[in-house]
Amino acid sequence: QSFPKLSFPVVTTGTFDGVHLGHQTIIRQLTEQARKHQGESVVLTFNPHPRQILQPESANGLELLSTLEERIAQLSMLGVDHLVIIQFDLAFSQMSFLNFIKEVLVGKIHTRKLVIGYDHHFGSNREGSFESLLAHGSNYGFEVEEIPAQVINEMAISSTKIRKALHEGHIAIANSFLGRPYELSGEVIAGAQRGRTIGFPTANIEIADKKKLIPANGVYAVEVMISNSARTIHGMLNIGTRPTVSNDGSRSIEVHLINEQVDLYGEVLRVQFHHKIRDELRFADLEQLKQQLKRDKETVLDFFA
Fold it and tell me: Rounded mean pLDDT of the chain?
């Protein structure tokens, strides 16, 4: 596809899953350089995640921190002028480093400056290094800037660490690495409606992207946005198998909106995770569950207070 001719494109490239604080450091440098040169910032990213194509066996268990839509929104909020999404397939993965420079960076984008993270490699067999980029950059008319090792290392942030924290229910750690609350989005579908019988109606959320990482089972303090509304509502969310009321072992995501009574069927909810209250528990009966949910509600309200 064609790309508009820019006066001074400043470019970076990467998968940017989660757009965490380490990524944000690179994007900040990108936008600063674009302003400095009175140019425009360009991010080249890939979809699907390269590991899903290059390592399909291990990628079956790969869970993503952000859907493509979330990545687009997060990069936009960071002030990126242009986002180019490259369809990552086997043919693209076999493109040599030099052809990537000639055909994409220079041929399509007309790159004038390239900003990359420390020790970033790309191209077939990851042959493109900072040193080789420097050598070819002068030939093709673009500068290369590498984010220093100490800047990246000081942050000690990786998508792998964030995934581990979420799998263990350590929301505060994950959020501190992301620089914002972890999010899930999904449509409200019909549930068993048992929550209504004990005074805690819940919305059953179906996550559309099956690769999106679901945090550890348990009860969480969350903020919820309904569809495209900017208003946030406090809620308590349960991820798990509902052992008190169900024996089928299926995992569900249900949220109770605190002090709100709205019909949510068919709505898309955006949920931000703030704190894990407790693990999922099995209760002897619904009355015990109800009493625990009352305590959970107070815990959530205290947390947000």
Answer: 87
0.70 cut: is pTM over it? yes
Tell me the CA end-to-end span of the chain in Å, nearest whole number.
50
Strands 9-13 and 113-116: parallel
Q: What does the pLDDT look like over 192-230, one tens digit per residue? A: 666 566 678 889 999 988 899 999 999 999 999 998 777
In this prediction, residue 97 carries a pLDDT of 85
Cα–chain-centroid distance for residue 140?
Answer: 34
C-alpha to C-alpha distance for 103 and 47, rounded to whole angstroms = 19
pLDDT at 162: 94
- Annotate the chain with DSSP letters as a single string: ---PPPSSEEEEE---TT--HHHHHHHHHHHHHHHHTT-EEEEEEEES-HHHHH-HHHHTT--BSS-HHHHHHHHHHTT-SEEEEEE--HHHHT--HHHIIIIIIITTT--SEEEE-TT--BSGGG-B-HHHHHHHHHHHT-EEEE--HHHHHHHT--HHHHHHHHHTT-HHHHHHHHTS-EEEEEEEE----HHHHTT---EEEEES-TTBPP--SEEEEEEEEETT----EEEEEEEE--TTT--S---EEEEEETT-----TTPEEEEEEEEEEE-----SSHHHHHHHHHHHHHHHHHHH-
Sign of the dihedral defined by the CA atoms of residues 28, 69, 187, 169, in that order: negative
Position of tokens 């470019």?
11
